[in-house]
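so my prof wants the structure for this chain in the tokens format not the other one, which i didnt know existed until like an hour ago. anyway here's the sequence
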Amino acid sequence: MKLFRRNRAPVKANGDDEVVSHRLTLDLARADKFAAMVANSRASRVVEVADLLAGMYIYNWERLSRYWGADDQERVEEILRHVCEISPARWNAWIQQYDKQRRSGGSRLSSLPLLRKLEKASKVEPPLQRSTELTGILKQAESIAPFHDDAGGKNIPILTSECVLLCIVRNRQSQISRKLAASGLNVPQLERDALSSRRSPRGPQN
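here's what i got, hopefully its the right format
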């Protein structure tokens, strides 16, 4: 099984022609795809940081939850839902359907009934753009990523969920960053893991 996915998702940075400047781990690639669907669900042509954060929560929570205290996770979920501006009903439906699919051994995003319509619509519409803020976050993640891959003789970074989350938190001009920092997030531990080359870039396979 591949450890990461080549960054050929339909989302583009600020409308420019796609240039492969990084790879995404499989779990982050799924979160990225989910982020585009969240943007589509609110009729936006731009994928925001909050959209990707929602995808990271859905797909990587078991991996990322270690950076919050066990007793804080219900409160953190409420914070993330507000940050991502997703209604409780839709949020809970996505969580429940993904969890059910994961427990049954599936991992494909398109297997979620609530998202099939959004995925189908996204295939016939023009590619979404990434917001300037999200593009900047990914560029920062490229600069700190400890893992790299060869792409046509060019050494490019592999982005992990930890790297991206750390860069979101470090963007102190962002309201999302301030809310995450105030949520009890263990930033020192996140920094150690995001920057360490001793940790595998591979997310948990469900």
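also thought this was worth mentioning. Residues 131 and 160 are 19 Å apart (CA to CA).
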